[in-house]
């Protein structure tokens, strides 16, 4: 009889142990889930912002002649006269853009080598970012010619 | 009976843990980031429009832009933009293939089909009806065995208009892309 009651006691102790274990595991799981969800939401917001910025830049009069057609004169002027800090007032913080023709070479544009150049960049920093690449045209004013190019727009993961 | 009762409790607890793990795996599957539908749609549309608008380097009106070259391929397929280059039809194929291959996304991750068809009229040579298809023809939506029936495809459309002797002619251009 004594052994029988001890056996019952052990059973219940084990059962309580497992129940407590499950409750603790549940709490840890829910906490981990919340943290993961927050991280994923932040990533998604950055990607959404990068896409919105891309669509805005494709029609922004500072850079384009018409939708998705960038003007090389405007790009070069923006590169030399309007600095990144001023562009941030218009488009917000923590982003960058690059535009390049499909040539193999990369010749950054400035007022000295225009129009014999093919690359423009704004607010570029060495930080990880979510980046979108979009085919565009670049209108070369001097030659009156439409070249094929790529626009890269990115939003940095950490605010800069 | 007591021994069986303990075993039953142990089995129930293991069952709860297994259900737990199953729920966790299911939730993780559902929590994947939203697919980049909007981006790929934007990419496809811009790729098509940008390629058509690009200057080829030739100065003749028949060949100045890629859209002009495509029209030349349909209306005057044997016309040569310059003596050392192939006729319009062949040159259009080469030009489109060259441009499309320069885009990383297309080169590495996606298949594409660039289609040009006449609407309301038939363009033909001695070899047959002119119909430009550049890329993976399995993506053609009109085919019964089209890959687009089994996997996700993104499509962009545009038109090229030409007037000849007061008559207006339309070419329909379509770009279809799909993940490899």
Write the layout of secondary structure elements.
The complex is a heterodimer of chains A (160) and B (180).
Chain A: H1 2-57, E1 64-66, E2 69-71, H2 72-80, H3 84-91, E3 95-101, E4 119-122, E5 129-140, E6 145-156
Parallel strand pairs in A: 2-5
Antiparallel strand pairs in A: 1-2, 3-4, 3-6, 5-6
Chain B: H1 2-30, H2 37-53, H3 66-75, H4 88-101, H5 104-109, E1 110-119, E2 124-125, E3 128-129, E4 132-135, E5 153-164, E6 167-179
Q: What brief labels describe this structure?
A:
heterodimer; A: 160 residues; alpha+beta; 26% strand; B: 180 residues; 2 domains; two-stranded antiparallel ribbon
User: How many strands, which pairing sense, and closed or not: the largest β-sheet of chain A?
Assistant: 6 strands, mixed
Strand order of the largest sheet of chain B: 4-1-6-5
Number of helices of chain B: 5
Series of secondary-structure elements of chain A, N-terminal to C-terminal: HEEHHEEEE
Q: How many DSSP E strands of chain B? A: 6
**Biggest sheet: strand arrangement of chain A:** 1-2-5-6-3-4
SS-based structural class of chain B? alpha+beta
**Percent helix of chain B:** 40-55%
Q: Main interface pair? A: A-B, 38 and 33 residues
In helices, the fraction of residues of chain A equals 40-55%
Let me know the largest β-sheet of chain B: 4 strands, antiparallel
Count of extended strands of chain A: 6
Mean pLDDT of chain A: 89
Strand content of chain B: 15-25%
What's the structural domain tally of chain B? Answer: 2
SS-based structural class of chain A? alpha+beta
